[in-house]
Write a structure and sequence with these properties.
Uridine Diphospho-n-acetylenolpyruvylglucosamine Reductase, domain 3; 3 domains; alpha+beta; binds uridine-diphosphate-2(N-acetylglucosaminyl) butyric acid
Length: about 350
């Protein structure tokens, strides 16, 4: 276990916000995590679990302890002719795990290529892209209680997966550190190419295969989304709103260009990026806080923006979307701090 006092978080959040945590702890094994939380529980210090900080906005210094998993190891847990169950330590960088599965020819995670973050954060956020969601492949996960260090297994149905949502963002928020995630992957082709121009891109690369889908997804993401190493960002800042079919129909009548998708809940999902662009925000900036020039759902730190600057910009955006469309945009990014 590594324990650092007064730790700068600038390199631990992809917005590149300069702030400090009172304490920063890295746990390398499940046992270390259990031991830490047994003691931390007693001390009652405020604890926050971080991954790569790719979905976070710090608006002030963090007075407490930030814990990061460095639990590693990829294991083949079970297989038959059709499926394989692979487990991955929560501290593995997500995309290096996806790359490993694709090299093995296992199908299921290729659409989720090139998403920043650690594997342990994947079920918390139920990451999704290009028609796939992680929750579809997660069979179970193991976790350690942050209150007393006890171990618990969560089966898929206990994770409460929804659109960018899980039980770990709601009633169990902050209550568990995920140590290992178990994925059920296919050994045989079963591709998901229906989103946007994914099929077209995969065809251009020689036809659908897990390798080509991964390449196509990386190409599309690179062309649409900013690289956090160049301009700080946390991917989509807002969720795409899910509304009733009736309300979506009314909006579509008034704004025929609005992209509307069917949502598994029976509602309709609207493209928040389009709504924000139509309010005139695309590419705008206020000091060093800005809206990305080709994807309005992404807010960027052009240099020295504070978390509060980004937050204020997000509030302005929410206000204008509310005024024009009567819709409340919900933040996807988790805001930490005093605001
Ligand atoms: N659009 C605009 N203007 C914009 C942005 C988007 O008109 O500024 C339109 C696009 O032309 C398209 C529609 O909105 O018709 C959807 O855009 P896109 O395919 O880029 O996807 P998104 O809905 O904006 C979601 C996820 C992304 C994920 C992509 C691809 C959310 C909140 N975001 O974005 O996830 O990569 O789909 O599946 O669901 C993330 O969560 O951080 C993230 C990047």
């Amino acid at each position: 276990m590594l324990y650092i006092k007064s730790y700068s978080l600038k390199k631990n959040n992809t917005f590149g916000i300069d702030c400090t945590a009172d304490n920063f702890v890295i746990v390398h094994t499940e046992r270390e995590a259990a031991e830490f939380f047994r003691k931390a529980g007693r001390a009652k210090e405020e604890v926050f679990i971080i991954g790569e900080g790719s979905n976070l906005l710090f608006t002030s210094d963090f007075h407490g302890t930030i814990v990061r998993s460095a639990i590693r190891g990829i294991r083949n847990e079970w297989q038959d002719d059709e499926f394989v169950i692979i487990s991955a330590g929560s501290g593995i960088v997500w995309d290096s795990f996806v790359e490993w599965t694709v090299k093995k020819g296992y199908q299921g995670l290729e659409n989720l290529s090139f998403i920043p973050g650690l594997t342990g954060a994947v079920p918390v956020q139920n990451i999704g892209a290009y028609g796939a969601e992680a929750g579809e492949s997660v069979v179970r996960l193991s976790a350690v209680s942050t209150t007393d260090g006890t171990k618990r297994i969560f089966e898929n149905h206990e994770c409460g997966f929804g659109y960018r949502n899980s039980v770990f963002k709601n009633e169990l928020k902050g209550k568990y550190l995920i140590t290992r995630v178990f994925f059920r992957l296919r050994k045989n082709p079963h591709y998901n190419l229906d989103y946007g121009n994914l099929r077209e891109e995969a065809d251009r690369l020689g036809g659908p295969s897990v390798q080509n889908i991964r390449k196509a997804v990386i190409k599309i993401r690179r062309s649409r989304l900013p690289d956090p190493a160049v301009s700080g960002n946390a991917g989509s800042f807002f969720k795409n709103p899910v509304v009733s079919p009736v309300f979506a129909g009314e909006l579509k009548k008034a704004f025929p260009g609005l992209p509307v998708y069917n949502d598994p809940s029976g509602g309709r999902k609207l493209a928040a990026g389009w709504l924000i662009e139509q309010c005139g925000w695309k590419g705008r900036r206020s000091g060093d806080a800005g809206v990305h020039h080709s994807q309005s759902l992404v807010l960027v730190n052009h240099g020295n923006a504070t978390g509060a600057d980004i937050y204020r910009l997000s509030e302005e955006i929410r206000k204008s979307v509310k005024a024009k469309y009567g819709l409340d945009l919900e933040r996807e990014v988790e805001v930490l701090g005093l605001i």
